[in-house]
User: Which sequence fits this backbone?
């Protein structure tokens, strides 16, 4: 095979083989996503090449005579390159979700449409600590766009850096070679700092580290350094085939030898990136580079962006439509074929026509006049129409979250107890034959009021507590009740707030996400070390407050808070320690048996709303009582009414006969797999009072 002649583009030699390397990297991403179910290192190579091509082009332009210092032109040029294909895929994904698998639509996903379009998807996933999961029926079809967001943020950095260099050269007369050298040094410092930051957890990091722009920065700045170093610093021709071949092998084996996505972008990322560096520094006339410069790899490289955009939503939607836990091989092959076709069409009819093909304007050019003149041509008018169409698609994407939020606000309005009595049917209320509410498609986005500033979250330290004005019920009442524990008591703040207003007591929340208060010596891993420490601090505050009563949940299934397994309910040792400490301080306690955590017949977590949205029968979205509840409340033997310690068996609040259904009294019970909904919690107020009033009387706690 003859070596292709290098193509001159401006003052630099364009590396066609690196386009082929980009195609190879994306091919690895698609293959491992579809057939292996984990990351391949291909995205990391893609990020490095983005730095190589984009940052290199920005700095080289800045070093040319008469560079334009107007930031609009590089921004506009970049937007025309990236946004059209992204907008098309996002709107197509939205339509696919709404028409084919509406059960996938959620409050989180609606926000991801906006985040993806604004290139902040990585930060959203980072805040959610969302592990980069394999394809499955409950995986976001937009999860893969975190890397596009990282690139978008890097492009802004590169544009800013280019403008700084251009200003130094054109305004302050810095010598171009000196400016290039200083830029390389600055990028080297950033690369080392970012690499050390990304490696702070060792070989395996966290979801936040995986998505972080600051952790990923070194991959792209390393590419920029390679683009700026002198081009004669390459591996000699006689060794280039070997070094390029070794580099390709290092990239290819990454997904095999590194089993977890959380290894990236830490030290192990050096495996694929060193491989990519070896290809880049090898002479482009070697045998391996000839293969990468061949038409198939060139086509793959040119379509790489669109291929990356399309493959993941197609994989997730088809998996969900087929009802598969993971995609079978035949479906994976079909997804790849469809992705290749759509990538080619998108590249040909969206990317290429709408991108800016003319050179970036210099300060002495008149690009506005040229743009106006182009509108008088057929091609120019076609681009204008295409641009308007893309703007409409962008607007559609950005409207998803506001629309969904508005729908959630409507769904969050109080229900009419005459038509939707909820738990009121347990006290004899009639439930007419009407549709249950709130809409199970929206219910997951309706969060309890306590979560809005009056709850401590996972990322907060053990000394974090909510403001003193977080008081519910009657703030002026003398009687004080503490609502303590993890997120399972969070929705109970709704009925206790109502009861406090009705009966004259204040309610103070000591609630932390995934942190039921646990004290004493216990060996299980139900809660984190931070939660253990927070529990001690919270308890000391409760003792100082000296409340008339503390209320919390008294049981749970086995397993870590937030990730329990399907077992019958039990009382953790840490709960016993908490209750004993309350008893020693003469603080009365009511323990409410926890609501069911819903699992399917195979023992896997099941969101009953997702089940219903998928079209399953009401019975199939229920769970047998004896799958989750012991015949007798396990807390009853410890909270038997002596010393002011009481238990309340709530199982009949959530189960009817032998079944725990997704709705009672025309009200859906669950917000998700294990938290009850606001609407059902509100309907529990009279039921709670029925059992609470006699206990308050025994304790001689005043109320009105």
Assistant:
């Amino acid at each position: 095979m003859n070596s292709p002649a290098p193509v001159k583009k401006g003052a630099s030699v364009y590396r066609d083989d690196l386009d082929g390397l980009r195609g190879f990297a994306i091919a690895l991403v698609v293959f491992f996503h579809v057939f292996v179910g984990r990351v391949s290192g291909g995205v990391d190579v893609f990020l490095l090449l983005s730095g190589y091509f984009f940052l290199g082009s920005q700095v080289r332009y800045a070093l040319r005579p008469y560079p334009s210092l107007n930031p609009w032109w590089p921004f506009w040029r970049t937007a025309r390159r990236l946004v059209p294909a992204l907008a098309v895929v996002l709107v197509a994904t939205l339509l696919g979700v709404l028409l084919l698998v509406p059960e996938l639509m959620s409050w989180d996903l609606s926000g991801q449409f906006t985040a993806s379009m604004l290139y902040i998807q990585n930060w959203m996933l980072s805040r959610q600590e969302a592990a980069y999961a394999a394809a499955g029926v409950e995986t976001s079809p937009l999860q893969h766009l975190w890397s596009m967001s990282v690139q978008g943020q890097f492009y802004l950095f590169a544009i800013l850096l280019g403008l700084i260099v251009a200003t130094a050269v054109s305004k302050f007369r810095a010598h171009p070679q000196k400016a290039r050298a200083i830029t390389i040094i600055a990028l080297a410092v950033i690369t080392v700092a970012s690499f050390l930051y990304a490696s702070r957890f060792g070989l395996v990091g966290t979801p936040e580290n995986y998505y972080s722009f600051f952790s990923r920065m070194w991959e792209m700045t390393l590419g920029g350094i390679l683009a700026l170093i002198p081009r004669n610093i390459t591996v000699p021709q006689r060794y280039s085939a070997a070094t390029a071949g070794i580099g390709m092998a290092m990239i290819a084996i990454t997904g095999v030898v590194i089993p977890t996505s959380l290894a990236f972008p830490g030290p192990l990322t050096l495996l694929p990136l060193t491989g990519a560096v070896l290809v880049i520094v090898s002479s482009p006339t070697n045998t391996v580079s000839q293969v990468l410069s061949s038409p198939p790899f060139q086509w793959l490289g040119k379509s790489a962006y669109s291929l990356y955009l399309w493959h993941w939503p197609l994989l997730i939607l088809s998996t969900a439509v087929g009802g598969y836990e993971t995609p079978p091989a035949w479906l994976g092959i079909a997804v790849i074929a469809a992705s290749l076709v759509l990538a080619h069409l998108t590249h040909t009819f969206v990317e290429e026509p709408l991108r800016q093909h003319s050179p970036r304007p210099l300060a002495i050019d008149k690009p506005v006049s040229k743009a106006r003149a182009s509108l008088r041509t057929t091609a120019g008018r076609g681009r204008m129409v295409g641009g308007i169409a893309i703007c409409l698609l962008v607007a559609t994407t950005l409207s998803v979250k506001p629309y969904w939020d508005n729908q959630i606000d409507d769904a969050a309005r109080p229900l009419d107890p005459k038509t939707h009595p909820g738990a009121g049917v347990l006290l004899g209320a009639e439930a007419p034959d009407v549709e249950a509410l709130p809409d199970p498609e929206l219910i997951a986005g309706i969060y309890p009021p306590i979560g809005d500033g009056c709850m401590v979250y996972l990322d907060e330290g053990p000394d974090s507590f909510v403001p003193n004005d977080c008081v519910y019920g009657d703030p002026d009442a003398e009687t004080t009740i503490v609502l303590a524990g993890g997120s399972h008591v969070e929705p109970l703040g709704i009925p206790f707030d109502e009861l406090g207003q009705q009966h004259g007591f204040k309610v103070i929340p000591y609630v932390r996400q995934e942190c039921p208060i646990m004290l004493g010596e216990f060996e299980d891993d139900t809660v984190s070390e931070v939660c253990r420490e927070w529990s001690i601090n919270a308890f000391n505050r409760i003792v100082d407050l000296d409340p008339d009563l503390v209320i919390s949940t008294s049981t749970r299934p086995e397993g870590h808070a937030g990730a329990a397994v399907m077992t019958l309910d039990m009382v953790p040792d840490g709960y016993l320690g908490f209750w004993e400490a309350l008893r020693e301080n003469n603080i009365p306690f009511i323990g409410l048996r926890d609501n069911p955590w819903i699992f399917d017949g195979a023992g896997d977590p099941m969101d009953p709303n997702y089940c219903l949205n998928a079209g399953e029968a009401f019975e199939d979205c229920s769970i047998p009582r004896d799958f989750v509840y012991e015949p007798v409340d396990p807390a009853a033997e410890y909270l038997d009414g002596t010393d002011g310690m009481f238990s309340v068996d709530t199982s009949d609040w959530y189960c009817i006969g032998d079944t725990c259904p997704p709705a009672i009294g025309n009200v859906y019970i669950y917000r998700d797999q294990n938290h009850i909904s606001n609407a059902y919690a509100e309907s529990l107020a009279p039921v709670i009072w029925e059992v609470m009033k006699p206990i308050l009387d025994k304790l001689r706690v005043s109320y009105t």
Q: What stands out?
A: Residues 8-404 form one domain.
